[in-house]
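Annex B, item 7. Sequence and structure tokens for protein A, then protein B.
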Amino acid sequence: MDALTVAAAGMQEGQVRLNGISQNLANATTAGYKRVVSFSRHMEEASAMNPPVMQTAIDTSAAPLRHTGNAMDVAIEGDSYLEVMTEGGPAYTRHGALHVDARGRLVNAQGYPK
């Protein structure tokens, strides 16, 4: 493996890690946000060593529950999600801030019904 290939693999790994950190910082105060974690995985094939492959995953560990004072808010424990109906079909979220809209529907902060 030549030096340029190794350097390119290292830069790609650094970019993936930086993207994950940036996303985590941008959403640090977003309720229900699950941080992105990155890790390197080295793969070996026969006698040749491939460069590190950067992997990303969602950290699904539970955050501490906190009381919001809003009777409509819900807290989610475990690996469950709330299903909301969007224009594009069902979507899933862990953000439990809910309210009743003008039509009397229970909706999330973006106005999608539960």
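Protein B:
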Amino acid sequence: MKFYNYRILVLLIVSFVLSACITMPGHRHVTEEEGFYLRVETPSLEIRKQIRFNAELNGLKYLPETAWIKLIVTDSKGKHDLMIKNSDGLIIYDYTLNGQKTSFDESGREWFDSVIPKVAKILGLVGGNI
């Protein structure tokens, strides 16, 4: 009976170690600083490179359907939480300010436009590409 329990213990340890070594496929970029969190997730680096900002770097021009961007920034107005996804070819902005779901209106867009240069710099934006 002891040998049987030992085999189960060894199997559990090996399973745990292997599960820690396996990561889900895809490309993730996470940056976390005081008051600033950015996560970009795509199935591959090639798809991440398809993400586009406009030429003025004040808006998102293209986001593949398989990609998403999560941005959380705390500033003098409070905590901005923005999730950006593509749904049927439309870029969807799910925006929360200080814990309250808010429409992504002119004020939200002005805030987003102000942080795009930092996002672009972090991700190595060159020629309108992330």
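Comment on protein B: Confidence is low (pLDDT under 50) at residues 126-130.
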